[in-house]
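Amino Acid Chain and Its Fold in Token Form
===========================================
Purpose: to set a sequence beside its fold so the mapping can be learned.
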Amino acid sequence: MITFRRQRGAALFVGILLITVVVVLAAVVALTAGTQHLGQARTALAEQAWYAAMARLESGIQQAVTGNVCPAGGSAELFGFATTLTCTASSVSEGGMSYAVYNLEVTASQGTLSSPILVRRSVRSQVTDQGE
């Protein structure tokens, strides 16, 4: 006659434990991958904001040097970023020459404080009309 051993449920316990461990590891891997992806996206946006600020700054420098006047400031949309240009001019006399020094600052931003991603980059430059 065949007799069956009495089962105690140890295999069921081990199986549930293994499934739980695998699910937790999968969740950790998914969260890590998502965080890395978001970090890379933010880095790319920060670099794009820097290029937008530099483009607006270069345009302002060209206007200041060729027109001998501070470029019109204010806000403008550039490459999907809101850019703000400010300029102040100072008259300098040295060595019997007088010339203007222009202090330009550009800020490029995208997003708001309440949005998931806020990117803001600022660049500054001082230029002169090279005296006359």
Q: What stands out?
A: The chain has a mean pLDDT of 87.
